[in-house]
Design a protein that fits this description.
globular, alpha+beta, four-stranded mixed sheet, 594 residues, single chain
Length: 594
């Protein structure tokens, strides 16, 4: 059976389920209206029952009534006058597919493209909207970009965007109508499974348009490339941008930095990690097929060979650099200072100096002489890492050893680099590359040096030779400014622990409190976090609810509600009072928030 015919059958099944739901709900509403009338005509009128029936019928109709959501522009709206090459390329794809142009084109930050149908009623009428990711334009060539746009226009061709509006409105109506009835929870769940299966089939149908118009080679390379870059973009932001943003500065062109990142060591390391990682198994509630399913489907399609156009897709934009700077500013609407990438090294220096201050404040007797001793003694890594990062106290998860090594490597690298830079060495950095120190034209790489010492591939004599060459005192320690010392020693959350009437009670600021990464019921290895709602107060009080991400082991995965009792929570002061299972666990909470 072809993808299109299978999609048609699934669409008919989903629509049939939809009609059955609306017919059933309206039928119940009609019966609720008819009952008072029947009682009235048989002279058995009951005022309270009549009010209840009318209220129930009204509530059902209100739940079924479609909601009209105001369209919020997802990004920067583009015009043909400003970007004629981009619109000419979009018009070419639309013309070759025999579909009309979208009514609006928006630029978003993702490594992605998608289409919407906005306005109208239940997916009927409205405007077509195409959203193109600036990240996609930054990494695709023209052939891959055309393949992505053809896929999105395939949704217009198949009427998917109209059907999605109807299905989403129905899902919302089901939740409003049946959300409070546990017995009927299978209805929206079944409908969701049906519609998500339909959505996955629609994605494959849209892929046939992509292959037909841009060629199998461009489609397949685009799928793989865009999946990689979706991960890489998040990694790039997390490692290269967000730490600087925490200091109130952001590079003025994130997309230029990302293109430079693609030639970096961190990008190469990420590729190796992603190649080794297994793709998560597909789920019945996924809206898209897995990457492997889409690739296998495309491989089976017959399609003519289309010569690739390897010109960068961002050349479709007029003055791409100015647009990238403008869009970078839109991504950070809060007050930050925009800096050139050449100035980022100085801010990274400040971040590393803060880490060095934290090390010196929390391990007061640490010095350059102790670096070599620490990296050689693996048994000393855990207490050192817990002193620097208390969240590792009680951390019981499969990646504990990896997290400990990560904290040791990062802290010692920052400490060593800060002491060496105090000798007048200049900082050098580039997106995705480790920070370097320039010593008379010869680079010193603190991260690589510490990694080599931890791995045993470099001996302690390497560090000693470097110290002698720079004439650094063997017992040199980092000088911590008093303001930095106070900040380094400040706890994540001040936690008090006491026994009250035989119970163990913990008090802390709710928004800052972090629970130890071990099972809250037995202290065993954490398997997952379960978002759990706890009632505030006792049986005879109603002070609302709070939600906590409770870490649990596999054996207690279905009992997170037994971990705590929330005695009190005051939103204004942000203080929460928890009753916890044991004194040892309470102390663990206190130490892990130190």
């Amino acid at each position: 059976m072809g993808a299109r015919s299978s999609s048609t059958i699934q669409a008919m099944t989903a629509v049939g389920f939809l009609l059955l739901f609306y017919a059933g709900a309206l039928g119940v509403a009609g019966l609720l209206l008819a009952l008072p009338y029947l009682l009235y005509t048989t002279h058995r009128f009951h005022a309270l029952l009549t009010v209840l029936c009318l209220a129930g019928s009204g509530a059902l109709v209100w739940s079924l009534w479609p909601r009209f959501e105001r369209f919020v522009p997802p990004g920067l709206r583009l015009t043909e006058a400003e970007h004629p090459r981009l619109f000419a390329a979009i018009r070419d794809v639309a013309g070759r597919m025999g579909t009309r142009m979208p009514d609006a084109v928006y630029l978003v930050e993702d490594v992605n493209a998608y289409v919407l149908q906005v306005g109208g009623v239940l997916g009927l009428g409205g405007q077509r909207v195409l959203c193109v990711g600036l990240g996609l334009l930054a990494v695709d060539d023209l052939s891959q970009w055309r393949a992505a746009v053809a896929h999105e226009f395939g949704h217009f061709q198949g009427g998917d965007t109209r059907l999605v509006g109807l299905l989403c409105a129905t899902r919302s109506a089901m939740i409003r109508t049946l959300g409070g009835w546990r017995f009927f929870s299978w209805v929206p769940e079944t409908f969701l499974r049906l519609t998500q299966a339909l959505s996955r089939r629609q994605e494959l149908v849209a892929d046939t348009w992509s292959v037909r118009l841009a060629g199998k080679r461009a489609h397949l390379s685009g799928l793989r490339w865009e999946a990689l870059h979706a991960r890489a973009w998040r990694r790039y932001l997390a490692r290269e941008v967000l730490p600087l943003a925490s200091r109130g500065v952001v590079p003025d062109n994130l997309f230029e930095g990302y293109r430079r990142y693609l030639a970096s060591a961190d990008w190469a390391e990420g590729l190796r990690e992603w190649d080794a990682a297994c793709e998560p198994a597909s789920c019945p509630y996924d809206s898209h097929p897995s990457l492997e399913e889409r690739i296998a489907f495309a491989e089976r399609l017959e399609a003519p060979d289309v010569p690739p156009d390897e010109r960068p897709a961002y050349t479709l934009l007029s003055d791409a650099e100015a647009l990238e700077r403008r869009f970078t500013a839109r991504l950070w609407p809060r007050a930050v200072e925009f800096i050139p990438w050449s100035a980022a090294g100085e801010h990274w220096r400040a971040l590393w100096n803060e880490t060095a201050s934290r090390v010196q404040a929390r391990v007061p007797d640490f010095s350059l002489a102790r670096v070599a001793a620490l990296v050689k003694d693996a048994g000393a890594w855990e207490p050192f890492a817990e002193a620097i990062q208390p969240r590792l106290v009680g951390y019981r998860a499969p990646d504990r050893a990896e997290r400990v090594r990560e904290v040791v490597a990062g802290s010692v690298s920052a400490y060593l680099a800060s002491i060496l830079s105090a000798q007048g060495l200049a900082w050098r950095t580039s997106p995705g590359e480790p920070l370097r120190l320039d010593c008379a034209g010869e680079p010193v790489e603190p991260v690589a040096l510490v990694d080599g010492l931890l791995a045993g591939t470099l001996g302690a004599d390497t560090l000693e030779r470097l110290r002698e060459r720079l004439a650094v005192d063997a017992d040199a320690a980092w000088r911590v400014p008093e303001s930095a010392r106070a900040e380094a020693l400040e706890p994540r959350a001040p936690v008090t622990v006491e026994r009250t009437g035989g119970a163990v009670v913990v008090r802390a600021p709710f928004s800052r409190l972090g629970l130890p990464e071990c099972c809250a019921l037995c202290g065993g290895e954490r398997a997952r976090h379960v978002e759990t709602r706890f009632h505030v107060g006792g049986m005879l009080r109603d002070d609302g609810d709070v939600t906590l991400p409770v870490p649990v082991c596999q054996a207690h995965a279905h009992q997170p509600h037994k971990a705590f009792k929330v005695r009190h929570y005051e939103e204004e002061s942000d203080l929460i009072t928890l009753e916890v299972p044991t004194w040892e666990y309470a102390r663990l909470i206190q130490r892990s928030n130190a």
